[in-house]
Amino acid sequence: MARSRYLPDNFTLALVATVTLASLWPASGATAHFFERLTTVAIGLLFFLHGAKLSREAVMGGITHWRLHLLVFGATFVMFPLLGLALKPVLTPLVTPELYTGVLFLCVLPATVQSAIAFTSMARGNMPAAICSASASTMLGVFITPLLVNLIVVPNGAASASFDAIGRILLQLMVPFVAGHLLRPWIGGWIKRRASVLTLVDRGSILLVVYTAFSAAVIEGLWKQVPMSALAGLLVVCAVLLALALFVTTWASRALGFDKADEITIVFCGSKKSLASGIPMAKVLFASHAVGAIVLPLMLFHQMQLMVCAVLAQRYARRKADAAAAEIEKVKPAA
Q1: What is the pTM of this model?
Q2: What is the enclosing helix (H) or strand (E) of 304?
Q3: Which of 98-102, 157-161, 319-323 has the lowest average pLDDT?
Q4: SS3 229
Q5: Is 189 exposed, middle or buried (0-12, 13-18, 19+ CB in 10 A)?
Q6: Cα angle for residues 203, 14, 97 (degrees, 5° grid)
Q7: Residue 126: DSSP 8-state
Q8: 2 found inside a domain
Q9: Which of 124, 168, 224, 291 has its CA 20 to 30 A from that of 158?
Q10: Which of 281, 335, 307 is nearest to 115 (CA)?
Q11: SS3 158
């Protein structure tokens, strides 16, 4: 019997299991140092493989659609931060200050790549533009996210200094990515044939970061500082952010005259935030003991956006299929 689309997927269950494991048996001392080093290697390998997988031709195919890209980048790096700041007085009472710092961090992250492209494909949107926009968002996020973190998330300097953080992200994420992309002509085909390897590294590296982050946070007393009422409030905060992001991107794409295929791309690329980029960035930008609370809103938002966008993509796809069927009926000769 097939699993309902409303139920969490296997990766979400693995995240929950990892958080539980870190809560019950947190890594400390030499074990924690080992996992830190292993995590750094795994993240570098992850971005190396993503660089080797990225198709330059597909990106170039959508790069000329500049109006769409500007709207997506505006949603990702302007709309979300403004929403996070504007809603802070209203939503902060629902969560702890540390959790709302995580909400603001979520708001300044780049868009996700894989799921944005997958949902755009499912909904029959503009695929070349989606590939270009989502990939460029990830690259720009390397530079923009650290600056925004120091501007609106922790303006008192609790995060790493902007240029230092950019340098560390470039070294840990961009250098492996560029190296993988340069080696694509030789290893791209091998990686494409072994997509399961990329999936394993992708998910495995995130689980490693989550385990090390939550281990440090638990040792510092994370669960004593985060009551159940705050977790319930965090669900409300994530739901409000996602609903507003979907509404604004849909309304803006229609108001600016984009066609349906472009609207789909704008909605799915402009309303998403990247777990794959966000967790490694949090590891670089924040102290180890603070990362657990920082990434918790991102983990909840990630699952929520997957569930909601899966339903939305199917609605878009049905609408396009119904429109195509109606056109066929119009041209059918009378009996």
Answers
A1: 0.74
A2: helix 288-331
A3: 157-161
A4: helix
A5: exposed
A6: 90
A7: -
A8: no
A9: 224
A10: 307
A11: coil
Average pLDDT over residues 141-167: 73
Q: 289 with 280: CB under 8 angstroms?
A: no
Residue 50 within any structural domain of the chain: yes
Angle at 77 between CA 179 and CA 120, to 5 degrees: 70
End-to-end distance of the chain based on CA atoms, in angstroms?
Answer: 43
pLDDT at 265: 92
Minimal CA–CA distance to 222: which of 94, 36, 96, 37?
96
- Tell me if 220 sits within 8 A of 294, measured CB to CB: no
- Give the domain extent around 264: 10-318
How far does Cα 161 stand from its chain's mean position?
23
| 323 within a domain of the structure (yes/no) | no
User: What is the pLDDT at residue 335?
Assistant: 47
Whether 59 is in a domain gets the answer yes
Q: Are 74 and 137 in contact (CB under 8 A)?
A: no
pLDDT, averaged across the chain: 80
User: Could you give the CA distance from residue 78 to residue 107 in angstroms, rounded to a whole number?
Assistant: 9
- Six token digits for residue 117: 């492209």
**307 token code pair:** 């569930």
pLDDT above 70 coverage of the chain, percent: 82
Q: What's the whole-number mean pLDDT along residues 167-172? A: 71
DSSP string, 4-56: PTTS--HHHHHHHHHHHHHHHS---HHHHHHHHHHHHHHHHHHHHHHHHH--H
CATH number at residue 137: 1.20.1530.20
Question: What's 179-239 look like in SS3?
Answer: HHHHCHHHHHHHHHHCHHHHHHHHHHHHHHHHHHHHHHHHHCCHHHHCCHHHHHHHHHHHH
CB 281 within 8 A of CB 295: no
pLDDT beyond 90 at 332: no
Number of domains, the chain: 1
More confident residue, 72 or 317: 72
Residues 165, 161: Cα–Cα separation, whole Å? 6
Measured between alpha carbons, how far is 55 from 246 in angstroms, rounded to an integer?
Answer: 28
Mean pLDDT value across residues 103-124: 84
